[in-house]
Design brief:
Elements: H1 2-27, E1 31-35, E2 46-50, E3 59-60, E4 79-82, E5 96-100, E6 109-111
Parallel strand pairs: 3-4
Antiparallel strand pairs: 1-2, 4-5, 5-6
């Protein structure tokens, strides 16, 4: 009888643990992160695959449009969100999205225009 109770307890505990893990997996967000073969730069190691969530891009404080220190080893076409108002003309930056249109050695941060343009009817 003691062996039966021991086996029953072990089997019940295993089933309970299995159900808890299945429930936790079902409650997870509908987003996956994968390492991309195409993501070769240090800033772009993850890809977010989701159908109903957004993405927050890297937030940095640029000092100017030619800032080399805000993002170490920046790559061409890297998208960031600048949080600072800084720099002198013609290198002035203010908060918003910027993309590096220069190179790793000579970054050139260009503001990305995200103005909404309604469809023409």
């Amino acid at each position: 009888m003691k062996n039966f109770a021991n086996n029953f307890f072990c089997k019940s505990a295993a089933v309970l643990l299995f159900m808890v893990f299945c429930f936790q997996a079902g409650m997870a967000q509908n987003a996956t992160t994968t390492t991309s073969q195409q993501a070769k730069d240090a800033q772009t190691k993850k890809e977010i695959a989701t159908s109903n969530n957004g993405k927050i891009v890297m937030r940095v404080a640029l000092k100017s449009t030619n800032d080399k220190t805000a993002v170490i080893g920046t790559s061409t076409n890297l998208l960031i969100y600048n949080t600072a108002t800084a720099g002198e003309s013609p290198y002035h930056v203010y908060p918003g999205y910027y993309s590096n249109v220069g190179t790793t050695e000579q970054p050139k941060w260009k503001r990305v225009d995200i103005t909404f343009h309604p469809a023409v009817k």
